[in-house]
Amino acid sequence: MSKMRYSRRTILKGGAAAAAATALPAPMIWAQEIKDITLRQFGTGVSNLNDVAQKVKEDLGFTLEMTALDSDSVTQRAATQPDSFDIADIEYWICKKVWPTGNLQAMDVSKIANYDKIVGIFKDGKLTPDSEIAQGTAPHSVGFIPEPGATTFADEQTNWMTLIPTIYNADTLGIRPDLIGRPINTWAELLNPEFKGKASILDISSIGIMDMAMVCEAMGEITYGDKGNMTREEIDATFAIFTEAKRAGQFRAFWKTFDESVNLMASGEVVIQSMWSPAITAVKSRGIPCVYQPLKEGYRSWGGGIGLSSSLSGMELDAAYEYINWYLSGWVGGYLMRQGYYSAVPETSKDFMSENEWGFWFEGKEATDVITSPTGDTLAQAGEVRDGGSFEERMGSVACWNAVMDENQYMVRKWNEFIAA
Amino acid sequence: MTDLTGDTPPPETTAAPKRAGHGLGANLLGWLQAAPLTVILVGFLVAPIIMIVIVSFWGATEFSIYPAFQFDNYEFLFGSPVTYRVFLATFKYALITWALTLCIGFTVAYFLAFHVRSQTMQIALFLLCTIPFWTSNIIRMISWIPFLGRNGIANQTLQDWGLIDAPLEWLLYSDFSVILAFVHLYTLFMVVPIFNTMMRIDKSLLEAARDNGASGLQTLRHVILPLTKPGIMIGTIFVVTLVMGDFITVRFMSGSQKANVGRLISNDIALLQYPSAAATAVVLLATVLIIIAVLLRFVNIRKEL
Question: Whole-angstrom Cα distance, residue A177 to residue A185?
Answer without folding.
Answer: 12
